[in-house]
Amino acid sequence: MSSRTIALVAHDHKKAELLEWVKQHIDTLRPFRIVATGTTGALIHDNTGLEVHRFKSGPLGGDQQIGALIADGNLDGLFFFWDPLNPAPHDPDVKALLRLCSVWNVPVACSPATADLIVTSPLFSDPSHLRKVPNYGK
């Protein structure tokens, strides 16, 4: 299995959309280590057979667990289909997760259109491609 890791996350009203997107790109996603928040991970695994490491549900800390992967340099991409029309009680966690992606230069897609652009890029499937990681130790 690849050491490259991607995270799949979706708010309740976006889970079906993420599942459909995963099915469309399953062969491209298969080589990656996939992590997800709890319910989303179970949905993806149960409907695609992909191996998915499931963290806690987002509101119960799953967003922070994925954030820790980003901060530790262990996440290569985040596909987070969030629902901008239905605020969630853990919105500050969502904002923090998206902020960490910007801080550590991790590609993030919040919609199927952006996710399509990322996974169809030749760089996405190129294991020799290394994204530039900022050095904040200066």
From TrEMBL:
Keyword set, alphabetical order: Lyase
Catalytic activity reported: dihydroxyacetone phosphate = methylglyoxal + phosphate
GO biological process: methylglyoxal biosynthetic process
Annotated residues for binding of substrate: H11, K15, T37, G38, T39, T40, S57, G58, H90
Domain MGS-like per the UniProt entry, residue ranges: 1-138
Residue numbers annotated as active site: D63
Assigned GO CC terms: cytosol
Example GO molecular function: methylglyoxal synthase activity
EC number: 4.2.3.3
Keyword Ribosomal protein annotated: no
EC class of the enzyme, as a word: lyase
Domain of life: Bacteria
Annotated InterPro entries: Methylgl_synth, Methylglyoxal_synth_AS, MGS-like_dom, MGS-like_dom_sf
PANTHER family in UniProt: METHYLGLYOXAL SYNTHASE
NCBIfam families xrefs: MGSA, PRK05234.1
Function: Catalyzes the formation of methylglyoxal from dihydroxyacetone phosphate.
Similarity comment: family membership: Belongs to the methylglyoxal synthase family.
Name this polypeptide is given: Methylglyoxal synthase
Species per Swiss-Prot/TrEMBL record: Marisediminitalea aggregata
